[in-house]
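Q: Give me a protein?
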Amino acid sequence: MALTLEDRLAVTELIALHGHLVDAGELDRLDEVFTEDVGYDLSDFGQGELSGLAALREAALVLGAGNPVAHHVTNVVVEEVAPDRVRARSKGLGVMANGSCGSVTYEDTVVRVGTGVWRISHRTLRARRVPLNGLGQG
């Protein structure tokens, strides 16, 4: 079944919902974004991979005031890779309480879990630390 415009919109809104829920501290609603067994890869930040919603919630609480006060997502690209499975890439900006800002690339595997219902089953965060991914840096 081909990915419809409605599916693309649903996936894009799903990715945006993450920031709204986390910024509001509504960690009990993360099941609206992720599968119960989500893999959340923070290896690029030296933290390994979390497995499952409970681990994701716990990590957010442990980080506490170290969390961004605002998560912004942009540049969402959705690519169908199999029936009921897409790859989505997006850019994320995290604004910290002190006003500093960081950038990540989200690499998501998103699966259909019901009619018109999508959830992220795996997310990898890639830190953006150098311009052009290092190209032309010497």
